[in-house]
UniProtKB/TrEMBL annotation:
Protein name (Swiss-Prot/TrEMBL): 16S rRNA processing protein RimM family
Origin organism lineage: Eukaryota, Viridiplantae, Streptophyta, Embryophyta, Tracheophyta
Domain Ribosome maturation factor RimM PRC barrel: from-to ranges: 233-314
Entry GO MF terms: ribosome binding; UDP-N-acetylglucosamine diphosphorylase activity
Entry's Gene Ontology BP terms: rRNA processing; UDP-N-acetylglucosamine biosynthetic process
Stored SUPFAM superfamilies: Nucleotide-diphospho-sugar transferases, PRC-barrel domain, Translation proteins
PANTHER family on file: 16S RRNA PROCESSING PROTEIN RIMM FAMILY (PTHR11952:SF10), UDP- GLUCOSE PYROPHOSPHORYLASE (PTHR11952)
GO terms under cellular component: ribosome
Pfam families listed in its UniProt record: PRC_RimM, RimM
Domain RimM N-terminal: 133-221
Length: 712
């Protein structure tokens, strides 16, 4: 039997008088309580190598012994409660003692220990029926007052008027709400805070236990608002609908005040075009919408929705345009810079090999943006093409002439020549002459419908100015290339039928400033019947303008338009061949099953189309050329068909394709005695390096060439 539970009769056997037995029992309990409390304080204060969970267990065991003692001796509840109150919020005894004392005795009074008498209710974070009005940030003074950070628009009503309030606290890892009584409060406008006093909180230790607690009021106590005013909690979760289009925009997730007005934080709806509403994503980009009548004219609390009339672009602000995080974008930018530096070093090395070091002088002058422009231009110089052109200039040769080539070589040895009138070509037949070209047209149509033909449409400034079929479109017209292309594709007589375009890859080669207008034209016209995935836009090939070196006549120097800009001009129609060798374009066409490539200018009066293609296929020729009786304009207006096999042969032997050096006067800058000097020539002082697509005939045997001559 435990000595602590001996009855008085047995204790009387040990002492002479019954009063002495009662005194002994009292002393024994006091001694046991003192030892238990002393040991628990020692274990909690003195460091020990025992693992933390074990130490906590030992302390809990001693506290449990003390609880048993107190349960059998209610007179010591008061002193032990004072210990618990002064031990701080980390004391594990706190709520255990409250529960046990409540079940074992009824002598634990409100004034002695506040927490024991307050009803504690477990709650979730968003407890229904309550509204947050602020939180306790610190202790104020020595009489149990606390400092409160307000989050309500009615601080005087909430913190100065006595009455019931509720505190939401963390208790043993769970949130709990208990009722308190506010006695008084006073504001501090400069600090945007209030000092309040709660009943039964009279010491600093008691007040410290409240730090971090959220102060709540009942939703029933909310004051009535004037018309046009709303509680923020009522707006959160509302649907946002565009008033003009009646389309759902998103959901209000929060409200902030920026000083001038309230601002709604709206989560936009995710794309649900191909998904039912139940499968729509619950997350989306966040945007800010000012809560003013001009933008939010209607708010319906019953329907839980609001109508907005946002200004243009408002919903696009603050939307994250990148799927990657900022850190990932920085890493990608760093890799791109490293890659660019490697390309720049390689490009500078190649220019040094061609003795063009004067191009780098601009790096020593100017601002960062100017030197960056120079670096971009150096990287973009086609050094391989420039090297081929300079080597071609070193070899004295007569300028290549297509007219002479036609008369000397093709006139005698050409494999096949087809003469067809413009009427037959445009109307797909003219009486008895239909039989002469109908089979060729059928063959060409079959190849096109099977996706075995790709088209390269070429245009440059000369093409636009010398357009033979639409001169009215280029007379001081902006975006004339776009207008020419629209006219070209809208006329089925000048190009393949619309029904066959879906299977045909299309590549457009044009100046850089024309790419964007052309892309817009294709998008607005549904790509003129072409498959959008098979349409490509390429910038025309450019090459620097050169002049003879003053030191050595056999050397050529690149002209500089400014210290940070290289003077470059288009290569010409022959640049299409080098473009096809870049970016794996030819390999992609081969994978698509393309067997023939038609290269034509946008300014053609008539396009050979099916007939020229059928002629090349029937003759098994490498090149097919459309000519006219008047061939003076063939340099700028051409239509040629290449077999894929011969095009690959051209790319492997591009160094054998001829260049023409066209003398031109170009103003430029030169560095003389560490100063930049403007040079304005009065005569031709430089050379444009141009390559014609007809130069490919030099690599093709005449018996592998077929002609289609269009007559009037």
């Amino acid at each position: 039997m435990n000595a602590l539970s001996l009855p008085d009769s047995q204790f009387s056997l040990l002492v002479e008088r019954p009063n002495d037995a009662e005194l002994l029992r009292t002393l024994f309990f006091k001694l046991s309580l003192s030892l238990s409390l002393s040991l628990s304080l020692y274990l909690s204060a003195v460091p020990t190598p025992t693992p933390k969970p074990v130490r906590h267990y030992g302390r809990s065991l001693l506290l449990s012994i003390a609880l048993v003692l107190l349960a059998n001796s209610p007179e010591y509840h008061h002193s032990f409660a004072q210990y618990c109150c002064s031990s701080g919020p980390n004391n594990e005894f706190e709520l255990k003692y409250t529960a046990i004392s409540a079940s074992t005795c009824g002598c634990f009074h409100d004034d002695d220990f506040t927490f024991a008498t307050q009803e504690i209710v477990e709650t979730s974070k968003a407890e229904p029926g309550f509204v947050e009005i602020g939180y306790i940030s610190s202790v104020h003074g020595l009489e149990g007052e606390v400092r409160v950070k307000s989050s309500t628009d009615f601080p005087e009503l909430r913190f100065s008027k006595p009455g019931r309030r509720w505190l939401r606290q963390q208790v043993l890892g769970r949130e709990a709400i208990r009722e308190v009584e506010l006695l008084q409060g006073r504001g501090h406008p400069g600090k945007k805070s209030w000092t309040v006093k709660f009943k039964t909180i009279n010491t600093v230790d008691q007040a410290q236990l409240l730090i971090g607690s959220t102060i709540l009021v009942s939703e029933e106590d909310k004051p009535e608002l004037e018309e046009g005013e709303f509680y923020s909690n009522d707006l959160v979760g509302m649907r946002v609908i565009h008033k003009e289009t009646a389309e759902p925009v998103g959901t209000v997730v929060n409200i902030f005040n920026n000083g001038a007005s309230d601002v709604l934080q709206v989560m936009l709806n995710s794309s649900t075009a191909d998904k039912p509403e139940s499968e729509a994503s619950a997350s989306g980009p966040l945007v800010w919408v000012p809560f003013v009548e001009a933008i939010v004219p209607n708010v319906d609390l019953n329907k839980r929705e609001m109508l907005i009339t946002p200004p243009k672009g408002l919903l696009d602000l603050n939307i994250r345009t990148h799927e990657r995080s900022k850190k990932e974008r920085r890493q990608i930018e760093w890799k791109e810079r490293k890659k660019f530096q490697k390309c720049l070093i390689a490009a500078k090395k190649k220019l040094c090999e061609m003795e063009q070091q004067h191009v780098f002088h601009g790096f020593r002058y100017g601002e960062r943006s100017q030197t960056s422009t120079l670096a971009d231009q150096i990287v973009n110089v086609n050094s391989k093409l420039l090297h081929q052109a300079l080597q071609n200039l070193d070899v004295p040769s007569k300028r290549w002439n297509f007219h002479e080539f036609m008369e000397i070589n093709l006139a005698k040895d050409v494999r096949s020549t087809l003469r067809i009138s413009e009427a037959c070509l445009s109307n797909s037949g003219c009486g008895e002459k239909v039989n002469a070209s109908s089979k060729l047209q059928e063959k060409g149509h079959l190849l096109t419908s099977e996706g075995k033909v790709a088209t390269v449409l070429y245009m440059d400034d000369c093409q636009r100015k010398g357009s033979s079929f639409a001169p009215d479109l280029v007379d001081k017209a902006e975006n004339s290339s776009r207008l020419l292309v629209e006219r070209f594709f809208h006329d089925n007589q000048k190009y393949v039928k619309t029904k066959d375009r879906d299977s045909m890859p299309l590549i457009l080669v044009c100046p850089a400033h024309e790419i964007q207008p052309l892309q817009s034209a294709f998008e607005s016209h549904n790509h003129f019947g072409f498959d959008s995935t098979k349409v490509s836009f390429l910038e025309e090939e450019k090459i620097p303008v050169v002049r003879t070196s003053l030191e050595e006549q056999s050397k050529y120097k690149i002209l500089m338009k400014s210290p940070w800009e290289i003077l470059q001009k288009p290569v010409g129609s022959g640049g299409v061949i080098s473009l096809l060798s870049s970016n794996s374009i030819l390999e992609n066409l081969t994978e698509m099953g393309v067997e023939y490539i038609e290269v034509c200018s946008v300014g053609q009066r008539f396009n050979g189309g099916y007939t020229l293609l059928g002629l090349v296929s029937s003759c098994e020729a490498n090149i097919g050329i459309q000519t006219f009786k008047d061939i003076n304009g063939l340099e700028d207006n051409f239509d040629m068909v290449f077999s894929m096999t011969f095009m690959k042969h051209l790319i492997k032997n591009m160094n054998k394709l001829p260049f023409d050096a066209v003398p031109k006067p170009y103003p430029h800058v030169e560095k003389v005695d560490n100063e930049w000097v403007d040079v304005v020539p009065s005569a031709s002082n430089s050379y444009e390096l141009r390559r014609s697509i007809y130069g490919s005939l030099n690599l093709c045997p005449p018996d592998k060439v077929c002609l289609m001559e269009v007559t009037e």
